[in-house]
Predict the structure.
Amino acid sequence: MASQFTKKITDFISFNPLSCRSGSLPGNIVLMVKLMVVGLLMKEYLHDLSDHFLPFFPVFDQIGSPEEFKSILQFFFILGSVGVLFSRWIRASCLILGLVFLTAVLSSKFHYTNVKFFCACIFLLTSMSNSKDPLIFLRFQMVIVYLGATVNKIFDADWRSGQYFEHWMSAVLKREVYIHATTFFPPMVLSKIMCWMSIFTEFFLTIGFLLKPLQYVTIFVGVYFHSMVFLLASYDFRVFTIAILSSYLIIVPWPDVLRVRYDDNNQLNRLLKTFFSFVDWDKRIEWQTARGKWQLGVLEQSFSGFLAFKRIILYSPFFYFLYVFILGLPNNPYLWIKLKTVQIILVFFFPWPEIIEHLKGKLRNKK
Amino acid sequence: MTKKILHMRIMTLFKEDIKFLRRPDWIKFLVAVFFVTQLTLIIWARFAPERYFCWAPHDCQTEYELTVFVNGKELTDQEIIDRYHRPRKERDVRSPGNVKGWIMQESRTYSHNDEILVIMKYQVNGIPQEPWIWHRNSQKK
């Protein structure tokens, strides 16, 4: 009883912004909103909140001067961000942030951007979610996002013909690599392929967010798709890449406990254990000593060696914060660091070992 | 028989979701309205020149150049920025309908006493379009 009381007090006074434990929301959702807030702050959205210029509803023109209006939005943005980062009344803070972004979007057609509306939707729907029920609201929102993107592209003649991509890559972004690659194809063919690949990928992601059995493939396809767009364009669309990648945490099964067996006699194992214990702010990892390779037991699955190591990283909020911190850096002069990091992440987390294991299993069954 | 199997498959796939949705409350109602609105706007955007709330990020590259006459006098580059918060010549990732919408709404809302003539030369995804010419008389009585 006393220890429970102490734990409650400790939880209450824990102001660690990197901690993702919350009674009201699952860990993956807390992590998602925190990453989005970090991204928004790093990308200076505080200054980008709109004054009311050309609003969707004339009523916004009556609410004070543009400067006063913007200051009010900024105040609530800071309030909501502090609440989310320090896990204080996290759902209420998400509601505040959602309303701030919705108001910012509605109060100015001119400052309307899809990413602001996306953030508004995610924060609002997070405030309406909880740790007991399935995250159906957030999943459906992602379905609508990708459905809208698919419908818009498929009904656009410039997307169907490849004209959009050809112009974007050659005239707008002037990507030498892409211009060179087009010389190996008949005119417009490569652009057409790229456009149709985007359409099919977004359509697959629509289905992927709807059907639970496809969740792992959806995460893989979605994360690689958005990362490849970032690499190809060498541009992160401000907070869009961070926000959309963070939103895949919605369908990541998030374990409360990670059971890790490591070899205490191995120096590298001990070193890694020390490091992972240090960054395990929520004390989710249960360490056990054993001989041989690393082993991880999580969500009724077990992994060993490199696979276990990869999974521990994937379930550690610390690495997500680090990744978002790097992506949040300004393009000038850090673009090369961001591009290299994304490339390393894509290569490191490509499921080669899983594919090899799968093929080995198939071969064994044939024999 | 096939119908029954299909029904069973759907029930297994969405078991948790269906269980959750069977308990109606006002939050679910609000969220449903929110989703239906978004779906409607996705369809609406197919028929409207302006595209908002339809999840079309970076789906269009519009390059435009404005020439604006207010009460017969041509606006300078700075005057265009002051009026529309946009430079005379720009590349935008939104539909040309959005740019036209801003210009029309600005004159309706903030400068309805002016006589305005706007000529917008523009291209969409690199393809030149017919210039858009818009004239509005002063609303002063």
In short: Chain A touches chain B through 47 residues (CB under 8 Å).
